[in-house]
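ARCHIVE CARD
SHELF: 3
SLOT: left
DATA:
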Amino acid sequence: MAELGADAIKVMKTQDLKYLRAVVSRDKKKEERLRSSLHFDHTQEYGEEVQRKNKKTLFVDGTEKDAKKVLRQNGGVLWDEEEEEGKGEEDDNDFDNDSSLNPQHESAVVSEPTSDDEYDLDISTLRAANKKPKTEAELKKINRRQTKIKKRIEKNRLKSYAELRNREERRQKVEVALAYMETEKNMNAKGAKRKVVEGDSTKPPVYKWRRKRAK
């Protein structure tokens, strides 16, 4: 079997360098996508938590029309029983006269309207207000389903974090190999050189070439 010449070996090493650079670039892009995905999940959960905290209770008869009417009467601000306490008898009389705010009516939880979508109501919640109260068995079933979903989401998130760590470790190893190969390539350059920094398992040695005086 014929041995490869110096030029052929040089070409192969050059191809290896290009391949390793492509691997590093590809892994960096995948890592960035994973980080963005994990950051988006965290931001989405935070937003949902804030949204839950910003929800108030509005007593309506279960129809979208009456709910919008109440919102308009209150200047787009949802009525809240705790906020109404201590405002005086005048507010109490207004409350008694307005049948749409009577606590005897069914309650529905809706989100506060935003400037972009004024008086936008949670129709699914309003419809749910018309349904019969759920039994204890149904509530337990819903809780079990929600717990199962949360566990699956957490499992997928941990899996994504593990994949991100593995990709980072792999990329770092490839970068070390790439640095060694580039150093080896530079060693073929002409001129006197000396080692200025010793190498180790994480980085190659550093050489310094003597500068030639231009003639």
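SLOT: right
DATA:
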Amino acid sequence: MEAIEAYCSQFGQKAAKTEVRPIGARDYFFHIEARNQFYGSLINVKYAEAFLVEGPLNAEVLSDLFHVQSHKNR
């Protein structure tokens, strides 16, 4: 979100007052947060981001791919 806020002229109310069209909905940050909360609710976390895979993917396998510690082991 901070990266998007760095380009605030492209998003939200500030952009609506100029000729620059805001990307997405009128309240872009609200929709990003709501979407990420929805995906998080599917896996019992506050926020998540969706991505496409061709079949089921085990969460432990995903954490191994990115060399990060699983939230179960924290």
